[in-house]
Amino acid sequence: MEQPENPAEQPIVSDRVIINGSETPLTLTADGKLRMWERGQRCLTVKKEVLGFVTEGSKIRIRAVVKGGGAGICCVASKGALVRKDFVFQPLSNDSLNLWSQKLRQYIDSLGKYLNFLILILTINFFLVGTGNGMVKSLLDSVGYPCTAPNAVLTIIRGHKRSLDVATILQRETKFFSILMLAWGLVADIDIESEKYRWMGSARIDFYGLQRILHLRQYNGCVSFVPAPGFETYGEPTSYPNKSTGKPDSCNPSEEESIKVRHHGYQGPNIDLENLEWRTISGPFVSVWLHNVPWGSEGTLAAPDAKFSDGYLDLIIMRDCPQLALMSLMTGLNDGSHVKSPHVTYLKVKAFVLEPGPQTKEPTKEGIIDSDGEVLARGKGTYKCDQKAPMAYDKLQIAVHQGLATLFSPL
Q1: How far apart are CA 238 and CA 38, in angstroms?
Q2: Staple partner for 403: which of 163, 236, 376, 387, CB 3.0–4.6 Å?
Q3: Is 1 part of a structural domain of the chain?
Q4: How far apart are CA 396 and CA 392, in angstroms?
Q5: pLDDT, tens digit (0-9, with 9 covering 90-100), for 280-319
Q6: Helix ranges restricted to H, 74-128
Q7: Residue 196, domain extent
Q8: Considering the entire predicted model, what is its pTM?
Q9: Residue 26 to residues 12, 35, 62: CA-CA distances in angstroms?
C-alpha cells in the first residue's frame, strides 16, 4: 500500500484484519482516522465519533456514534440524527490483537476521553431538562447541529470546552448568578405565568403568549446601562444609578422574610461601575430582555448577535408597539428578524440597572422579573404573589464577568 506524503496521514498501526467474515486492510493514522477497505474505503474519526473500545476474545469492538441516514460508517455522511453503532474487527494474530489494543488505548487516552461519570451525569441533567433548552440550542446551533438529546450527550462525551460569560445580579446584599437571560415585562409574564398550563408542554408558551398580546400590559420604569463600543448613541446620558430605593418587597410584608442567598467565595466581577459612561432609557415598556446567548429556547432566536464570551449582554427592549405589529414581531423570534423591527431597540451592554415599576393601566399591580427561567422577583398583584422570591421587586444591578464559566462544547 502506497505511503501518504502528509505526516498526519502516516499510519500508527496498519494490518490486515477480518471484518464481516472478509479479510481487509485496516489502518489507524496519526490524525486519528480509522480507515478500512471493505466495499470501498470507509473510516471513523476517533476524536469525533469513537466513544471507546473493548476487547472480546480475539476481536475488538469499537463503540461509536455516527450520523444516521447512510449505509455503514463513512467519513462523509448526510446530515441527520446521531445513532450508536459498533464496529467489530478481528486481528489475524495475538500479537496484532495486542498491538491494536495498545495503540487504540494510547490514542484515545491522549484525547482525554475518560470522563468522570458523576460530572457526566450532572451535566446531562443540565442539558436535557426544561421547556426551552436555550443554552444547549445555542451550543449545538453554533456548529450547525440539530438540537437533540443524542447531540447534547455526545457534546459532553467529546469533552471539548468553551468559555461562557456570567452575569452577576445584585440587589443590596443579595446576589444571583445568571448564564442565560433576564426578562421583565411581556417575556417574563409569558415564561412564568404560563406555568399554569405546563401540562401543554412547550405549546404553553405560544398559547399564553397570544393571551398576553391580546391583553397587553405595559410597565412604567427605567433602564440604565453601559453600552458596548458602537452603541454609545442609544439612550440619554446619565450618572451611575447606584442607590437602591430601599423599598421592601411589595409581595412579602417584610424584606427580612425574603429568601437570602449567602455567598462564600466569588462575589462578582471587579468593575468600577461608577466611573463608566452610563446611558438611560425610560418607559413605559412592553418588555425588557437581556440575553447572554443567542437562543432563548429551541424556537426562539432572541439575540442573534449574542456571543458566548464577548463580555457583553444583548439587550432587547420593546416599548410602544400596537398589538397587530407585536403579533408579527413575535413570529420573527423564530429567526431573529424581530430585532429589525422599528418597535425594538437592540444593543450590547457591559453593565445594566433595572428600575421596575407598576403596570400603566393598573398602577396597583406590578410585574415579574425572571432570570434563567426562574422567578427572581414578584411585584404585588402578580401570579403566585404569596410565594417568596430571592429578591424584591425593586432596583437591581447586573454586571458581566467575561469567560468566567466553562461549558462542554460540540467542537
Answers
A1: 71
A2: 163
A3: no
A4: 9
A5: 999 899 999 999 999 988 888 999 999 999 999 999 999 8
A6: 94-110, 117-128
A7: 165-406
A8: 0.67
A9: 11, 6, 13
